[in-house]
Amino acid sequence: MVPKSKVIEFSTDSPKTMSFDCLTAVAFARSIGLRQKGAFIAFIQDGHSPATQVEHPNTNQLTNIMTDEDIDAFTARFTTITILSAETGLHRNTVRLAPKIAGVQPFTQNSRDYGGIYLREDAVQAVSKKVLNPEG
Fold first, then answer.
1. 3-state secondary structure of 79
2. H or E segment to which residue 8 belongs
3. For the chain, how many structural domains are there in total?
4. Is there a contact between 58 and 13 (Cβ–Cβ < 8 Å)?
5. In sequence order, which ranges of 46-112 are alpha helices (DSSP H)?
6. How many CB atoms lie within 10 A of CB 11?
7. To 10 degrees, the CA torsion angle through 24, 30, 36, 39?
8. Closest of 27, 82, 34, 35 to residue 51, by C-alpha
9. pLDDT digits (tens, 9 = 90+) for 23-77
């Protein structure tokens, strides 16, 4: 007879054990300037960004973590004011103003607000225009 724990251990459907060298999705969201409670988790659940679902070893609850691959996939398509400020070296207020002036709105789908997440292409273009033409 095989113990249930061994069956679960070898099951391909069982969640991965949490890796502590990866950020939780919530911690990643805070690190990129997103503070709206639940907005980034909703963003993930709606399929806009990959995340790796794992079982927390202490609580046995499923949680989302962001692996390097998940973060790369997110930043390839999306950005935030915090990310753009770090990438460009510009003050966050300068970066925050650029999309507003260019009429670039944060990403939404079906009227769902995910906070300050922008499509990368649109936001980078807006910041580039602001840097090249600081008067307007």
1. strand
2. helix 4-10
3. 1
4. no
5. 68-77, 81-88, 92-102
6. 9
7. -40
8. 27
9. 999 999 999 999 998 999 999 999 999 999 998 888 889 999 999 999 999 999 9
Yes or no: say if 25 and 34 are a contact pair by the CB < 8 Å rule: no
Six-digit token pair at 97?
């103003």
Beta strands 16-17 and 52-55: pairing type? parallel
Note whether 23 and 65 are within 8 A (CB): yes
Q: Do residues 81 and 95 touch, judged by C-beta distance below 8 A?
A: yes
Token couple for 26: 């919530």
Q: What is the domain extent for residue 97? A: 4-132
Q: Amino acid letter at 6?
A: K
Has this prediction a pTM greater than 0.85? no
